[in-house]
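User: I'm curious whether this sequence folds into something compact or stays loose and floppy. Could you predict its structure so I can see for myself?
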Amino acid sequence: MRSRIVLECAEGHSIMEVSRRLRIAPDTVRTWRRRFIERGLDGLCDDPRPGVPRKITDADVERVIVKTLEETPKNAHPLVDQVDGHGHGHVSVDGVTDLAGAALAPRRAQTFKLSTDPLFIDKVRDVVGLYLDPPEKALVLCVDEKSQIQALDRSQPVLPMMPGVPERRSHDYVRAGTTTLFAALEVATGKVIGSLHRRHRAAEFKKFLAKLDREVPADLQVHLILDNYATHKTPDIKRWLLARPRFHLHFTPTSASWLNLVERWFAELTQKKLKRGVHLLCLCRVRGPAGS
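Assistant: Here's the prediction. I'll summarize afterward.
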């Protein structure tokens, strides 16, 4: 921005015109124009800021960064390190890395897992190809099951959000049961076909496939994107599929369920409905014959 101010002024534009062109205050244009006239390029740099002079040298910063990246301390928590070899105090690793702009965060750790599927590339191309260029007269569905969904009721009423105060809920809860959701996400429209079951065995998966067979128009081919869960490949499921040739299964690579778009929908369901929801346990009495 400072360089642009100087270049605009050098082309003969007035201070007000440069201010309008760059959408900045006229005083800003005056300041950096004057500083460039007085000191040249050096005038475009920041002046030394007030405060305690810097005590940590670039060599100290580099040494601590290298130590952080290449070594693990005994307590596996590299929070402090000696500034120099002369006992002149300690410095937090976070502080040093901030000075260096290295954006290291020693306290944080993340997990990952690489797929070892020998057909990884072929399966990725197959699945992504269905997303980008689906076959004509066909429906592409991303299918998976979300098991052990808990409907939790809090032991005390949820306190609503207020200015400066987040929504609060009690740490303890009452279990209102668990369920398994089978879901098929239609890639083209975002529509979801779902079915709830107590368990997630091959028998329940077969029932869900039968539901898809009923709800998808008979003149459409059905392409299902699935993970490698064992219930998707049982002999009973294979016999069911052989009797219905319009169903085509496409398996994601091993340890690559992130390719299945229904996983993204499950994440939205969890964040927006399940985690923040309060689910009351309803006990319904069914009236039977007299005396029952």
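Summary: The first strand starts at residue 80 and ends at 82. The mean pLDDT is 82.
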